[in-house]
Amino acid sequence: MIEFMNQFPCTAKIMKENLFDKHNRKIRPFYILWVILMFLSVIRFALSKNILWLLITVVFIVLMALTVRYKNMYVIKEWKKIRRVYAQGFPYIVVELGEVIAYTVSNRTRIYSWKDFDYFVETDRLIIMSMKDDSRILLKKNGFTTGTYQECIQMLQKKLKSTAPSKKR
Predict the structure, then answer these.
(1) Which residues of the chain, if any, have pLDDT below 50?
(2) Total-model pTM
């Protein structure tokens, strides 16, 4: 039984939104690390007045900038690859959520079990389901033909709670 059906033509905006979310999630830990270390080095500089701590702060600023540049380079690289793959046009995507998750792109369907579901995130236009094999399922918020995106989010939250590993005592 299908609880939710999501259908939409994929566009460049949707693909870019997915790419930026994917790579922002990858660099977030590094970015947080650089901010914390920079903050600590500024405090050390303020307390000790040692110029070395000021130089270390500058190093962390440079590392933050390089991290963002690294992310942007990979987004551009992946975007070029996606444009080559879909040179004839972006695919039509159909997602069916029920007993299983059926994800159809360009007439190729992949079936997932709910045990494969890891987490989901919301962006401006999308709900992105991340699977345990690092694949991502895109659901367009206004692409639901069965159910609504709010109901889908509630169902995804329930699925996460039901598939979460129980704590052993």
Answers:
(1) 166-169
(2) 0.76
